Amino acid sequence: MSGLGIDGPSTDRVREAVDAVVAGSGVSTSFSRLRITVTSGAGPFGSDRGDAAPTLVVTLAEAAPWPATTSIATVPWTRNENSAIAGLKTTSYAENAIALADAKRRGASEAVLADTRGRLSECTGSNVFVVLDGVVHTPSLDTGCLAGVTRELVLEWGRDVAELRESHLPYDVLDRPDEVFITSSTRDVHPVTLIDGRELAAGPVTLALRAAYDEAARSEVDP
């Protein structure tokens, strides 16, 4: 929130709101999405902010689990790593929505973007990892990608399984990867088996990282 200049609620207030929503929603939490949104509060039309207090919104909805593997598609649009909101998770989802809709029209579940310099960056709602010669690479944060929670946990929990690097990779690395997987809070470690319709194996490095992630997640519920 500091990147947006918003003084958000305390951690205790967020936990209180989450507990209240979970307890009162009637939604099964076996597989669901919980979203925490903080805004700068009510303001005037235009880009100016008002003087109102920030708002906190917590929503919870049931969701369908992802299939065992997934597909991604490249798109012609880029992530602007020089943007004022680069690396921030905001409600400005229009660019993501357009890219994802294009990917879905081609039968993929996610769109993967380059940055303005032609480097691999991220997907619309997940981070991307590429395995090359046994080494696991994920784009550096200066490509404009989000520092996703699951991304960070893979880098931490997977270090005993494989060599992991934050790297600058050309976008066309997706034409010749050994393995690819994407990560998010609902996908965990999700093997990619189709890129632009080209088949790709869910390889041994990806499967080993997924097993290590699942084991760590069971033992560290609140990492």
Q: Mean of the pLDDT scores?
A: 92
Give a short account of the largest sheet: 9 strands, mixed
- Uncertain segments: none
> Helical amount among residues, as a percent range?
10-25%
Distinct helical segment count:
4
**Structural class computed from helices and strand pairing:** alpha/beta
Radius of gyration: 18 Å
Helix/strand order, N-terminal first = HEEEHEEEEHEEEEH
Please supply descriptive tags for the structure shown above.
single chain, two-stranded antiparallel sheet, 9-stranded mixed beta sheet
What do you see in this structure?
- This protein has 223 residues and is α/β, with parallel strands linked by helices.
- The chain has helices at residues 11-25, 94-105, 149-157, 204-219, and strands at residues 32-39, 55-62, 70-79, 110-115, 120-123, 127-132, 135-139, 163-167, 179-184, 188-195, 198-199.
- Helix 2 (94-105) links the parallel strand 3 and strand 4 (110-115).
- It is globular and about 55 Å long.
- The two termini are 20 Å apart.
What topology does this entry show?
Elements: H1 11-25, E1 32-39, E2 55-62, E3 70-79, H2 94-105, E4 110-115, E5 120-123, E6 127-132, E7 135-139, H3 149-157, E8 163-167, E9 179-184, E10 188-195, E11 198-199, H4 204-219
Parallel strand pairs: 3-4, 3-10, 7-8
Antiparallel strand pairs: 1-2, 4-5, 6-7, 6-9, 9-10, 10-11
